[in-house]
Amino acid sequence: MRIGIIGSGKVGRALGAWMTRVGYEVAFTSRTQAHALEAARDAGPGATALELRALVESCDLLLLTLPFAQIVPTLEPLRQALARKILVDVTNPITDNHRALSMGHTTSGAEEISRRFPEASVVKAFNAVFAEVYAAQRARLEDRPITMFYAGDEDAAKQRVRELLVRLGFDAVDAGPLMNSRYLEPLSLLNIHLGRVLGWGAHIGFSLLREPR
C-alpha cells in the first residue's frame, strides 16, 4: 500500500516519517513543493515528493492533513482521480482560536468531505492526537497503547486504515459509521484543552479500557 500525505505541516510530516520507518512507501505533496521535498528528505529512504495530481493517481490511501477549510478547494479539480481512493480525514473543522468547532451535532467535517467527494471512501482517523506524539513515533504512554478511534461507512476501507493503525502500534477501535465523526471531532477539542490550556502537554492520549470480548 502506497500512502500519500496531502499537506506537509507538522502532522503530515510526522505521520509520513513514521509510516516510512515502519515500511510503507510514502509520498508527500504541499502547496509549496519545497516543503514536500523537505518532508520527503527528512523521512528518509522510501519517501518521495510529488505534485498533487501525480500523488493522488499513484497512491492507494491519502491522508488529508491540510487545514479543514483547504480540503475541498484543493481536491475539487481532482474529483475523477479520487474514484476508489481511501481518504483518511485527519482534520477537524476548528475555529481559528482552536476553542470551538465550526460545525457539529448534525454533521461533521468528515461527512462534508464525503458528500463533496462521493467517489472516494472517507475514513476518520488520527484527528485527536498531537503531532508531537506522531513525531516521537511511539503509540504508547506509560506502557499502555493509545486508543485511536476510526469511523467510516465502507468496511474494506476501514480495514485498510485499521491495518495501518495496528502496524504503528495503536489500539485501533472501530467507532462505527462516518456519522460518528460528530463525536470524534469534539474529542480533538478536549485533547487540545487538556494539553494546551490545562497544562498536560502534547504527549497525551486517550485509552479505552474494556473487558475482553
TrEMBL record:
Gene3D superfamilies: NAD(P)-binding Rossmann-like Domain
InterPro entries assigned to the protein according to its UniProt record, in alphabetical order: NAD(P)-bd_dom_sf, P5C_Rdtase_cat_N, STEAP_metalloreductase
Highest taxon listed in the record's lineage: Bacteria
Any GO MF annotation of the entry: oxidoreductase activity
Domain Pyrroline-5-carboxylate reductase catalytic N-terminal: 2-93
Protein name according to UniProt: NADP oxidoreductase coenzyme F420-dependent
Provenance organism: Cystobacter fuscus
PANTHER family associated with the record: DUDULIN-RELATED (PTHR14239), REDUCTASE (PTHR14239:SF10)
